[in-house]
Write the structure tokens for this entry.
Amino acid sequence: MSDCLFCKIAAGEIPSTKVYEDEICYAFKDIAPQAPVHFLVVPKEHIRSVSEITGANSSIVGHIFEVIAKLAEEQGLGSYRVVSNVGEQAGQSVFHLHFHVLSGRDMTWPPG
Ligand code: AMP
């Protein structure tokens, strides 16, 4: 989508600190990290949020979770949290599907 921040980051049109890339997804460091490790994994295809995942695109999400598991293992993340906010009330500020991967500090549950 032409005016989407994460489409532009995934396409390399806006700079980011790349963590991983393949033909399906792009991972990069969050600009305002909430933990010692905080990166985002986004599909290259524009999907607005988890609420737009269907049978037609769910294989992308499966792939993203494989990538998250691989990156976590490579980075030695023994314990980590994967979060995807859906809608403004839940804290979504960028309306392109993304999974936060957070690690490196104690985390509370339930979230605030
Ligand atoms: P959310 O609030 O769940 O939609 O998450 C959006 C995330 O994107 C936030 O954690 C922001 O800090 C992060 N973010 C916004 N702009 C950028 C950017 N240009 N590069 C990296 N991360 C960003």
Remarks:
- The first strand starts at residue 18 and ends at 21.
- Residues 58-74 form the longest helix (17 residues).
- The mean pLDDT is 97.
- DSSP finds two helices and five strands in the chain.
